[in-house]
Design goal:
Blueprint: H1 2-5, H2 9-15, E1 21-25, E2 28-33, E3 45-50, E4 53-58, E5 63-65, H3 67-75, H4 79-95, E6 101-102, E7 106-114, H5 118-127, E8 137-151, E9 157-174, E10 180-185, E11 193-195, E12 202-204, E13 213-217, H6 220-229, E14 234-237, E15 257-260, H7 266-278, E16 283-284, H8 292-301
Parallel strand pairs: 1-6, 13-14, 13-15, 15-16
Antiparallel strand pairs: 1-2, 2-3, 3-4, 4-5, 7-8, 8-9, 9-10, 10-11, 12-14
Helix pairs in contact: 2-4, 3-4, 6-8
Length: about 300
């Protein structure tokens, strides 16, 4: 029982693939997260290590407990069921690397609020010369939150003070299930952008049928350009040329044509050569500009 109670909550949450932030205080590590077992728009789950055990609190519901209580709430399990689950998975949990986002006692985090403002939609369409909007792109406001850990009189964490530092309109790219993958500012010249999940290749489908063509691009804005020019083609977003090594060759035979539209630089050409070794029928798409989105913007501006 004692060894179970000493399980690192950060490793348990990583094992369960739950999102969280964590950091260190003079009294030890802490965790901040959305409450895993209920809807929680503002992170209300706070945990810290006291001695060799972790204790958690739901700041909104004024309840908390140990690692065992956490598993009971997460799985809606009885005490014996939760204890048995922890005993069975203990070794795997202890081997798990902490995957949460590391923060200091003060710092920033971000959240996204979907936007249906028609003026913003029209503005984005004008800036990026969009004729159509794919279902895997949404518009949102990115809220950059500044937080500061509050330490109670006993020296232990008791919550966070949070304020909105920035509010930016962005394009939010998702997979076909709607899971956010990547965001960037609605302004082409802005460098504000970032990945929201593990950066890996993803296929963006255009419809329920069986497209004849797969077009490979490096990034999500390139995919947006493809959708303007070839709206019936499936798009494979590499997420960077380094991810060519992570491609599964079995996806290529599903398509009659494989077109590679990686960037016009040495890395883009090397990516094409690597794909060609996986699929000898792959063809390189040539265009004017650094990347496909630049080529699209220049092409539309010429008319």
């Amino acid at each position: 029982m004692e060894t179970i109670k000493r399980i690192d909550l950060r490793k348990l949450m990583s094992y369960l693939e739950l999102p969280f932030y964590w950091g260190e205080t003079p009294r030890g590590p802490y965790v901040l997260a959305p409450v895993p077992w209920r809807e929680d728009r503002h992170p209300s789950f706070l945990a810290h290590r006291k001695g060799n055990r972790w204790l958690w609190y739901d700041l909104a519901r004024h309840e908390g407990g140990s690692v065992i209580d956490f598993v009971m709430r997460f799985f809606s399990a009885e005490f014996k069921e939760a204890l048995s689950w922890l005993k069975f998975h203990k070794t795997e949990i202890e081997r798990t690397q902490v995957r949460g986002t590391c923060l200091s006692s003060s710092g920033t985090s971000q959240s996204f609020e979907l936007c249906e403002d028609r003026e913003i939609l029209e503005r984005v369409a004008e800036i990026w010369k969009l004729k159509r909007i794919p279902k895997w792109m949404k518009f949102a406001y990115r809220k950059l939150l500044k937080h500061k850990l509050r330490i109670g009189k006993n020296g232990e964490p008791e919550g966070f003070t949070v304020e909105v530092k920035d509010f930016m309109p962005v394009m939010l790219f998702t997979d076909m299930e709607g899971n956010p993958l990547y965001w960037r500012s609605i302004f082409p010249n802005s460098g504000e952008k970032g990945y929201l999940s593990r950066n890996k290749p993803v296929i963006l489908r255009t419809g329920p049928g069986s497209p004849l063509e797969l077009i490979v691009v490096e990034g999500f804005t390139d995919a947006l350009a493809v959708f303007q020019m070839r709206p019936l083609s499936d798009i494979l977003v590499l997420g960077g040329v380094a991810n060519v090594s992570n491609l599964n060759p079995s996806i290529f035979p599903r398509y009659r044509r494989l077109l590679v539209a990686t960037d016009n630089d040495t890395a883009g050409e090397e990516a094409y050569r690597s794909i060609l070794s996986l699929c000898p029928t792959a063809r390189r798409v040539r265009f004017q500009g650094k990347d496909l989105m630049e080529a699209w913007l220049n092409r539309v501006s010429d008319y």
